[in-house]
Structure formats: C-alpha cells, structure tokens
Amino acid sequence: MAEVSLKNLTKRWGDFIGVDNQSLEIHDREFLVLLGPSGCGKTTTMRMIAGLEDPTDGEIWIGDRMVNDDLPKDRDVAMVFQNYGLYPHMTIFDNIAYPLRVRGTPKSEIEPRVKKAAEQVELTEFLHRKPKALSGGQRQRVALARAIVRTPKVFLMDEPLSNLDAKLRVTMRAELKHLSRALKITTIYVTHDQIEAMTLADRVAVMKNGIIQQLGTPDEIYNDPANLFVAGFIGSPAMNLINGSVQDGHFVTTGGTKLVPVSAPDRPDVVLGVRADDMRVSEEGQGGIDVRIYAFENTGEATLLTVQWGKQRVIAKGDRHLRKDQDDMVSITLDPDHLYLFDPETGNRIKS
Amino acid sequence: MRDNTLKYLLVLPAVFVVFATAIWPLIESLRLSFTVGRLNRPGSLDQYLGWENFTWAFSQEPAFWNSVWVTAIYTVLTVALTTLFALGLAMLLAPGGKFRSGVQTLLILPFAMSPALIGVSFRFMFNPEFGLFDAFFGVMIPPLADVSWLADPVLAFAVCVMADVWGWIPFLTLVLIGGLASVPQDTIEAAQVDGASGWRVFKDVTLPQLAPVLAVVIILKSIFSLKTFDQIFMLTNGGPGTATQTLSHYIYFNGMKYGQIGYAASVAWLMVIPMIFLTYAYAKFVFRKD
Ligand SMILES: Nc1ncnc2c1ncn2[C@@H]1O[C@H](COP(=O)(O)OP(=O)(O)OP(=O)(O)O)[C@@H](O)[C@H]1O
Ligand SMILES: [Mg+2]
Q1: A120 CB under 6 A from ligand 1?
Q2: What's the pTM?
Q3: Which CATH class name applies to B62-286?
Q4: Rounded to the nearest whole angstrom, what is the distance from the C-alpha of residue A57 to the centroid of ligand 2?
Q5: Which CATH number fits domain A4-233: 3.40.50.150, 3.40.50.300, 3.40.50.970, 3.40.640.10?
C-alpha cells in the first residue's frame, strides 16, 4: 500500500522526448488510468516506475522512498506487460507461481494462491500447459494472474485487456474493478480504450506526446475537458468541433449561420464543441436549424445522424426509434448548457 | 538432350570429386584397418588380419590408453572452459550487455588464425628464453618464474588447453551472442519485476531459453576438441614424452612415423564411435521439432 509520485519525470532518447517533465501524484489505493493515443509515452512512464527504464530526469517515489536507484526487484511492484512477457519454458502454473517462488513464499502457500489467481482470470484448466499452447487472450490472462497472485505495493498494468474478445473484456473489466477495490492496492493502468478508462478509473490522466493534458475523475474528463485534445479524444462518437466566431453573444459558424447563444465575449476565431448526446433531433422545421442527413446509422441502442452543416459534418444522436434516410431533412437543436468553447490557436478551453 | 539427363550430368563432376576425396578414402581406411598394413612391407596392405588391430589397441598398447585419457581430459577441460568463458563474454557483449561496442570485431581475431599458427605462436610465447607469457607468468606468479613450461608434463598440457580455449572462445562467443539475442527481453524484464535477482534471472529465465543453443555449442566444441591435431602437433608434438598426445596425434604417429597404417586406420575408426554419438546428438538438437 503506497502512494506513487512522479516529480518532473523526463525520458529522452537523443533528441526524441518520450515523456516530458511530468509530475503526477497517485494516491494510496487509487486506480489511476493513463489514457492516450499510441506512442504518447504511456508504456515508457510505466517502465520507469517499474525500474526497467532509467529516467533522464526527475524523481520517482513509491511510498516515502525515492526509488530512482532501486532495482526493479526491490520496488515491490507487479506489472502486466503489454506483450505479456511470459516465460516460454515454464508451465502456466510455474509462470504464475514464479513471483511467489523468487520471493521465498512457503511451498504450502504457493499452490492455493496460484489456483486462486488462475480462477480469477478463468484459466484453471490450462495450468499444466506451456504459454505457446495458449491463445493471445489466454496468455494475457496468464500475465494478469502472475501480477495479482502477489500483494505488491503497486500494480502496473499495461493494456492488460487489449487482446481479449469483447465479451471477455467486459467480464475481466468487472473482475479487475472488483479486485482493485477488494485488494485496496494502488493501481496504474494504461489503456487507449476510453470505455475502460471511464469505467475503471478513480482518476484519469490523458496524455499526448509525453505530456499529461488533463488529470481528473472520469466525470471531469468527460464533462469538463481542459482542451481540444481531451475533448476530441474522450467520448464515442467524438465531440463535434465546429469552427466559427462569437458575435453579439452568439456562436456563428464560418459559413455565417447564427447557431446558438453562448456566454462569451465576442472574438473572431473560436471552436465550438458539442457532444452528439447534447443535440436534439426533431422533424424538419420544428427546432433549431434544418440540415440534410449525410448518413444515417442505427446502432440498436440509438441512432447516429451525420449531418451536413455548411462545410462541416456533425454527428448527432437521435432516439432509437427514429427512422430516417440519407438526404432527408431534420432539425437540430443544441443544448446551450452543454457547449464548450476552445481557442483554436492554443487549443485551450475558453471558460466564461 | 533432355533436361533431366542434363541435370545429372552437371552434378556428376561434383559427385566424382566427393567420392574420390571423401568416400573412397573412408572405405579404403576401413579396409586397411583389417590388414597388417605396414607401409614399409610390400604386400602387407592386402594382408588380411581380422580384428587383431583393434584388440591389439585395447590389450597391448598402454600408449593407446594414454592418448584416450589425454583426449578425454583435454576435451572435458577445453569444452568446459571455452563454453564458460564464451558464455561470460557473450553476456557482456550481447545486446543490452555492458560492453556492447566495437570490440566484437576484435574478438574474431583469434578465430581468424589457423590452429597450426596458434600452436606455433603459443610455443614462442612460452619459450623459456624470450617467451612473453613465460615472462608474464613469471612476474605474476613468482613460483612459476623458473619453470620450463613445455618441458613439464602437466604445464605443457595446461598450455595446450590454454591455446585451444583461446582459439575457440571467439567462435563460441559469437554463437552465444546470437543465442542470447533471441532470448526475448521482456521475459527477462518480467522476471526482474517479479523480484528475481540478477543471478536468478540468469538461472531461471535466460539459461533455460539459451539451453538449445548451449547444447549445440557444447556438442560442436566436443567434436572439435576430440579431433584436435594440428595445434598439438605444432605446440608440443605430443610431448614431453606422451603427456599431450591426443588420439589424433597418436594415430598420426603410428601411421605416418612408424608406418603402421593398418593399425592407425583401426584406431581412427575407433574414434568414430564417440563422433557418431556426438553427431547424432548434434543433429537432434539442431533439427529438433519442439
Ligand atoms: N528505446 C527507445 N528508443 C527510442 N524511442 C523509444 C524507445 N522506446 C519508446 N520510444 C518512443 O517513445 C514513444 C513512447 O513510447 P511508448 O511505448 O511509451 O508509447 P505508448 O504510449 O505505450 O504507445 P502504445 O499505446 O502504442 O503502447 C514512442 O514514440 C516510441 O517510439
Ligand atoms: Mg504501450
């Protein structure tokens, strides 16, 4: 049980900056998710915490100890590797038992604990096999079991569910959430799946190019994005971003359509962000602005309407019973309480 | 002419060369091993003797047993030492090792020397008057200052082992570097995070994954050690006495020096037995299915 803190952590390879002067406090027992696109430095951050990569600069603290100079074995962390890192010459049982064995756990304790971990990841029937005889998803679960078989100070999980099929992923997600609550162990979890991030995290750190863009609860990240990147990255479908300006207290698109009242001072260049959920779709002429449907999609639980809005396309979510066709006309109303304005130059949120 | 016929005609010269230089001498030596086979006695090359050459070696020849022992100890020592040193060096030079740099190219140097040349140069190095190593060991280990290395049976043997190990380390190191490079880095990192010390990572994760390559290296080196000849010939010529006389050297001496070509052939065929065993093991490891 320990908090983890990163102080001005930097990793550089030559001129290339993998992680750029990042500071982050992860509370004791917290489930923190690092979320970001491929190559943004998530794995690098994890590897530095685990001790597999030396930071170019900065400090890593686990509990009240600066661990920069500690070997991985002395940091008492358990890690699930993105590419599993299973021992090919050992059976699944021995793979899972290895962290217990090297740490001198009594023999009588090893078997029940391995069995329990295997049960938690639904692997019991494969214990005698070698990793080569398992599928990608099964291997990933072995890696997971090898981490949870022990009670470390910190869990580091690098996309531990990325190779599971959709159904198993949901089950394992719930299992992980339950486990982290039950074990009360600080967990740092890397993913680029935002549903995973939203459902698992106590707090999410959204990263881009080695820099944390925003740190907050899933709620804050979703409802109060700090900048254009976070706004565009979180949510499915992604938030609509519409270019335009603020004139007389209204947002006006580049095409000149006066869209919606906003509470911001006039300015020539601005980006309006609005989520598909926050747009009401109604019959032509019965709401805000009439638009032509570019594509109509039915996902089962809702309908998605891509509509042509001047030069831009915007996605709105409609009722699941709505039935329309391409080129039909509908009317769209924006919810004035859930609009976000951004500065197109800096990408920063303009708060009123 | 049909293509089919042509292709056989085209390989015919090669087949002929192989037959003339490898197959036929092999058959001929097998035949000779059952004859009286004295180079200085006309007609004896066709004089059938049965198994007598073989039984003679086992029952009447202490020199034969001496060379068997010399070869056995020589093989065990050189294989063990070369493999250990090469493994250590490979760990340092492998990707992710501590000393990865331009030195690998330097490493190949001893391997570029012919064994005979290694033999000659080591003889010079241990020359009591002007030998570099002789002087070096004399300074480092004072009791060894006045010994004449190649005149002492044990020391001469040690010098032979040293020369052999020195000459073979590069090749084995290169093979093991290749082997180490194919051990996935993430298994090593996983073990480190799991809590294993450097030594345990090596023992539990690196070594087992390196085992197939290591086995091939040990078998190959055993084969090479068993048939060592040219180096010994140039370095000590089997001496002092027969202290460093390996089987190959014994065979050469009997066949070429004493002219007992029939007897030499039979001892050579006796050597085939461990060779077949090793070659079989080698093939098994190299072409293993798993
Ligand atoms: N050893 C290295 N040398 C040079 N650059 C590296 C090295 N390791 C990683 N990088 C670079 O650092 C950046 C961050 O890599 P990292 O593995 O942390 O990304 P990631 O966020 O985990 O991405 P993904 O989601 O694809 O796993 C990448 O651009 C990568 O190319
Ligand atoms: Mg990664």
Answers
A1: no
A2: 0.80
A3: mainly alpha
A4: 20
A5: 3.40.50.300
Are A84 and B186 in contact (CB < 8 Å)? yes
Dihedral sign for Cα atoms in the order A101, A102, A103, A104: positive
Residue ranges for chain A with pLDDT beneath 50: none
Q: Which residues, 6 or more positions from A305, have their beta carbon under 8 angstroms from its beta carbon?
A: A281, A293, A295, A296, A297, A315, A316, A317, A318, A324, A330
Assess contact for A124 and A115: CB atoms under 8 A: yes
**Distance between CA atoms of A204 and A216, rounded to whole angstroms?**
5
Q: Which atom of ligand 1 is nearest to the CA of A192?
A: 25
Residue with the larger pLDDT of the pair A274 and B123: A274
Residue A111 Rama label (left phi>0; alpha psi -120 to 50; beta): alpha
SS (H, E, C) A269-304: EEEEEECHHHEEEEECCCCCEEEEEEEEEECCCCEE
* Interchain contact, A102 vs B195, CB within 8 Å: yes
A42 lines ligand 1 (CB under 6 A): yes
Q: Where in chain A is the domain with CATH 2.40.50.140?
A: 240-350
* Phi, psi dihedral angles at A187 (to 5 degrees): -130, 130
CATH topology of domain A240-350: OB fold (Dihydrolipoamide Acetyltransferase, E2P) (2.40.50)
Asked if residue A18 has its Cβ within 6 Å of ligand 1, the reply is yes
Cβ of B191 within 8 Å of Cβ of A87? The answer is: yes
Which of A43, A71, A86, A98 to mutate against chain B (most B CBs within 10 Å)? Answer: A98
pLDDT band at B103 (very low <50, low <70, confident <90, very high): low
Q: Considering only CA atoms, which of A65, A52, A61 is closest in space to residue A25?
A: A61
> Residue B189's pLDDT is what?
92
Per residue in A85-109, pLDDT tens?
999 999 999 999 999 999 988 999 9
| pLDDT per residue as tens digits for the range B266-282 | 888 888 888 888 888 88
Is residue A192 in contact with ligand 1, taking CB distance under 6 Å? Answer: yes
Positions of CATH 3.40.50.300 in chain A = 4-233
ipTM of the complex, rounded to two decimals: 0.81
> Strands of A186-191's sheet, edge to edge?
A77-80, A154-158, A186-191, A31-35, A203-208, A211-216
* pLDDT greater than 70 at residue B186: yes
> If DSSP codes are grouped into helix, strand and coil, which group holds residue A49?
helix
Ligand 2 centre and the CA of A267: distance in Å?
40
Kindly state the helix (H) or strand (E) to which residue A188 belongs, with its residue range.
strand A186-191
